[in-house]
Structures are given as C-alpha cells and as structure tokens.
Specification:
The chain is of the alpha/beta class and 205 residues long. The chain is built from 6 helices and 6 strands; from the N terminus they run αβαβαββααβαβ. The two termini are 32 Å apart.
C-alpha cells in the first residue's frame, strides 16, 4: 500500500515516526480526526496508517471525519480497502454521529483560508465554535483519553512589533468588525470551550 504514496510523503511520514514520542499510547486505540481531508489533518491520518504498516502491534483504528465525500475518497484513494481507516461523512457544525466512541479526538476541521472568511464568515465561525462543542460532547460521552483542538496564532490578535516573536503569554486585540475576525474569534472561543470543558485538553496553536 505504501508504494502508492509519493516518495516525498513517504519520507515525511517516516521522519515524523522517527520522533521520540510515546507512539505506543495509541496502540489498539480509535483516533478520530475531523477535517481529515485538510493538509495537516490528512498528514496526521497518514502518519497513523503508516505506523500500522510499520508495526503490526499498533492496530490503530482511524476515523476520518470529512464533509465532502468525493474529495475525501480522492484524497485517500490509495488506502481503499483498508480496514484501519473509516471515513465519516459529517458537517462538524451539526451534532456528531460517530460509528463508535473514540479514545482520542482531534478537531482540526476549519476553513483556514482567507478566501473563505469573506465568502462564508458564519460557516468559518461555526466550525470552530459549534464543531468544538460537538466534539467535546462526544469526547466526554466516550470518556476519551484526550481531545486535541487545532487552534491558531490568530488568537493572539494584533500584537505590537516589539513583542514579536510572540510568547504564549502575549495577547493583542481583535477587531470583531474585520473580515478575518470570524476565524480568529472562532479559534479563541474554541480554546475557551476546551478549557471550560476539560482541564486536560491540549490546545495546539
């Protein structure tokens, strides 16, 4: 199956798996990745599948939550027929209907390109606000081990040049009347929901 990947992607995945991380914590677990067709989330999915290929004991089941079935089937075409990847067709803004509980949930679904901010600001906001809420509810109902929210550096707002590079403790202002505010405010709200719901939640900016 790995022979169908581009050599650069293959090298990327092996490079990721070479990192000294506790990969064994994922063994035998179900991992849900929302927005699985996106650039970074898709790499997460493929990394887990590559881990299964390299270690038979891994046995990680991956649920890829996507909104567009056709695009997802095209993106993961070279994994067709595998039993360790299941696509879940779902709009994250609606209550999540998962085929089974997940031990780990990664909420990475979001319209991150500025071209969507003006075209669909409400949808951009809802994916980060409602999507995060629905994901957290699934995590709490399943007593998931971890819930990971993909946040963004946009949450820091407008920061004075003297404070760049930005530290974790530095926050500027956000103008809610700007076009980009739907994305930045949605990410800020998502972080607040995570911290209000589960103290052990990790926010990845």
């Amino acid at each position: 199956m790995s022979s169908h990947r581009h050599p650069i992607v293959e090298a990327d995945l092996d490079g990721i798996l070479a990192a000294p991380l506790p990969w064994e914590n994922l063994f035998g677990k179900t991992v849900l990745v929302s927005g699985a067709g996106g650039f970074l989330p898709a790499y997460m999915v493929e990394t887990l599948l590559r881990l299964n290929e390299r270690n038979r004991a891994a046995n990680i089941q991956v649920l890829g939550l996507v909104r567009n079935r056709d695009r997802a089937l095209a993106r993961f075409a070279h994994y067709a027929g595998r039993t360790d990847l299941e696509l879940v067709i779902q709009d994250v803004r609606e209550p999540w209907a998962l085929p089974r509980p997940a031990h780990f949930i990664v909420h990475a679904a979001s319209q991150a390109s500025p071209k969507y901010f003006g075209k669909d600001p409400v949808g951009t906001l809802e994916a980060n606000l409602l999507g995060t809420l629905h994901g957290l509810r699934c995590a709490m109902a399943a007593k998931a081990e971890r819930y990971l929210f993909f946040s963004s550096g946009e949450v820091y707002g407008q920061v004075e040049p003297a404070r760049i590079p930005i530290g974790e403790e530095a926050f500027g202002y956000l103008d809610p009347a700007t076009v980009r505010a739907c994305y930045a405010e949605g990410k800020r709200a998502g972080e607040a929901l995570c911290l209000a719901s589960r103290p052990s939640t990790v926010c990845l900016r």
